[in-house]
Amino acid sequence: MSILEKDMRSLKEETIDLLKIAESNLLMSIVGLKPDEIYKQITPETNHICWIFGHCASHMDFIFGELCQGKRLLSDEEQEHYAYDASKEIAIGEPPKSFGQLVETYLRISEDTFEYLKKLPEEKLRENPEIDAGKEIKESLIQAIDRVALHYLGHMGQITLIRRAIGNPGGAFVGGIAEKNRDQMYAKWKEWWKENKEFFK
User: Fold this and answer.
1) Is residue 38 domain-resident?
2) How many domains is the chain built from?
3) Which long-range contacts does 7-12 make (Cβ < 8 Å, 24+ apart)?
């Protein structure tokens, strides 16, 4: 019988890991999709996968870009298109940029987010996001990270449902709890995206 190793992660490490777990699952949820499938609606009231992914990207950009650092990487047009209160007409309309461009922007948002969190003193996680200082949200940064992670996983469930409905079910979820497993997921995602991003331009 194996003995469980003691979890020696700090609060900061554990919190960042949670966000990485959610992100790795979100990225894996689009692996194997074909370009025409990302715009398919399974009901008139259901958003397509492109919008869902952009919506998640906008949430990360808002919390860790605008509220933490006072900047956004998504354009004003993209922010409006992927907003949670966007009308159905906007959400299912022509996206501001291609899915390939959206994913590339998301990867920049992600890299910027984790670089910011890596440098942040652990005590800052218990405070409001720095630039916001409690004006927009009353949550601590830990709570904001929890919210983003939960948001990702909720929408990943939607993507999984859509994929099954259109006949391209994809892989299993939720994975990435262990760092080694998460690294394998990221590696698989990067390999798929490198080979297929040109088809999503």
Assistant:
1) no
2) 1
3) 10/122, 11/122, 11/125, 11/142, 12/117, 12/120, 12/122, 12/125
Look-up of token digits 């461009």: 101
For tokens 């966000």, the residue is 19
- For residue 66, give the DSSP letter: I
Rounded CA separation 166/96 (Å): 24
CA 134 to chain centre: 23
Domain that holds residue 144: 13-29+45-200
- Count other C-beta atoms under 10 Å from residue 163's C-beta: 21
Q: What is the mean pLDDT of residues 79-87?
A: 93
pLDDT band at residue 2 under the 50/70/90 scheme? low
Greatest alpha-carbon pair distance for the chain in Å reads 57
pLDDT for 90: 85
pLDDT at residue 49 greater than cutoff 90:
yes
Q: Compute the CA torsion angle 62, 64, 69, 73 (nearest 10 deg).
A: -60
Is 40 inside a domain boundary? no
- CATH code of the domain covering residue 84: 1.20.120
